[in-house]
Amino acid sequence: MIHQSSSINLIDALPCLVCSVGRNLYILHCTGDSSTSNKVLVLGRMASSGQQFPPQKQASQPGKEHVMNPIPQATNHEYKPANNLPGKVALVTGGDSGIGRAVCHCYALEGATVAFTYVKGQEDKDAKDTLQMIKQAKTQDAKDPMAIPADLGFDENCKRVVDQVVKAYGRIDILVNNAAEQYKASSVEEIGEERLERVFRTNIFSYFFMVRHALKHMKEGTSCIICSTSVNAYKGHPTLIEYTSTKGAIVGFVRSLALNLASKGIRVNGVAPGPIWTPLIPSSFDEDECAKFGSETPMERAGQPHEVAPSYVFLACPALSSYITGQVIHPNGGMIVNA
């Protein structure tokens, strides 16, 4: 049963302990050091009104994936790559963890050469793990992946990232704007100017900056841009006020940029995930909120990153989505059914 249902790579796993919590099955992956063992949720797609994550809290944004419990699922054994992105060069911002990691992994499986960004000093371990994951997944013809540290809230850093990718690979075929931060606030009075600017710089300014510098290196007619927005852009969120505002701005950015670039044959689309188990969650919410995260969806559970990543593959592949631009896909467990 474990082999058939598992969504993680157990090939290199050492002896494991299997245990159940409610309706969820866990594998305790033993690394040889009991202090660094982590539980990995392997039946995350089962709807369960009793699902709860272990209480946990991280002190800083954007969070660390390798200390989460359970570790988010970036891979899925049921995913069957079909060589959808052979020879493509993809740049994914915030690709070290969460949805970004899952997207990088899928792109590598589909034949793309992958580069991604991360926050130096905070996400180094996650970036190293993702880099290794991509190397193992990449096809023979793809070039080695690249992890680039950068604070993308500033134009000069975005230019440096683009220049580094182009120097290594010659061009950019797929740009995925995905980096994000989010902070809770019980009222708008709590949101200071410095924090407001920081969230907007990371979540929307960087999208403008990356596109502006990448466009000159994107081939007309075959390239695409994909932006990560959120279900919160459509339904709102009472305590993620500035984050939700940026996600709404991203929807407008996608629609307007799609119209602007249509004549050049560069497609622009978005993905609006629902509640997905990523490092943003324990670094944003308190322990009780983490424990019941995602239970409010019609599917009564949070989603996993690997359940979102195929949307990015679909939008990146011309053979699958050549007539789609200015649209947003909604992998959200049924929270939005008519957007």
Automatic annotation (TrEMBL):
InterPro entries in alphabetical order: NAD(P)-bd_dom_sf, Sc_DH/Rdtase_CS, SDR_fam
MF annotations from Gene Ontology: oxidoreductase activity, acting on CH-OH group of donors
PANTHER family with a match to the protein in the record: NADPH-DEPENDENT ALDEHYDE REDUCTASE 1, CHLOROPLASTIC, NADPH-DEPENDENT ALDEHYDE REDUCTASE-LIKE PROTEIN, CHLOROPLASTIC-RELATED
Keyword field: Oxidoreductase
Pfam families named in the record: adh_short_C2
Family: Belongs to the short-chain dehydrogenases/reductases (SDR) family.
Claim: DNA damage is one of the keywords in the record: no
Name of the protein described by the UniProt record: Uncharacterized protein
